[in-house]
Design goal:
Elements lengths: L2 H26 L1 H7 L7 H28 L1 H26 L4 H43 L1
Length: 146
């Protein structure tokens, strides 16, 4: 296994663990999630929403990324890029509309920026490596036919 593949697998597994941690925290302590976000629970529906969105959705994302780390790395990296850029677009808009949020949100914004940049750079490296290998195979075939 080459260095890029090991690095990519490790990164995707790390992100999978982040999703899993968010999921478990949301299932087991939705009131804590709401506290971090400075939201007061007004009904059981609020806990239901936290458990479904942060709990259930992140659990499925975690499982998908765990699988994809070994079988579909480009897809996993694309997913991480799209997921984080979507969050970042919403956060930037919110920062403009409502002002800078609390420290918890700022920390998650920094994590999302880092995850986006790393996933994007790893995709680019995989694409570059793939095109280099295609070119070298083509060169080899052309030399062999001469």
């Amino acid at each position: 296994m080459n260095f890029l593949k090991i690095l990519t697998t490790g990164f995707i597994l790390l992100v999978s663990l982040i999703f899993l941690a968010v999921s478990l925290g949301s299932f087991l302590a939705p009131e804590q999630v709401m506290e971090y976000l400075s939201i007061q629970a007004v009904s059981d529906s609020a806990f239901n929403s936290i458990r479904s969105y942060y709990g259930g959705l992140n659990l499925v994302f975690s499982l998908f990324l765990f699988y994809a780390a070994f079988r579909m790395q480009k897809t996993a990296l694309g997913f991480i890029s799209l997921y984080t850029i979507g969050f970042l677009i919403g956060r930037v808009y919110s920062f403009i509309a409502e002002g800078v949020a609390n420290a918890f949100v700022i920390r998650w914004t920094a994590v999302e920026v880092i995850l986006f940049l790393v996933s994007f750079l790893l995709i680019r490296a995989m694409i570059d490596r793939s095109s280099e290998s295609s070119e070298s195979r083509l060169d080899y075939k052309q030399e062999a036919s001469i």
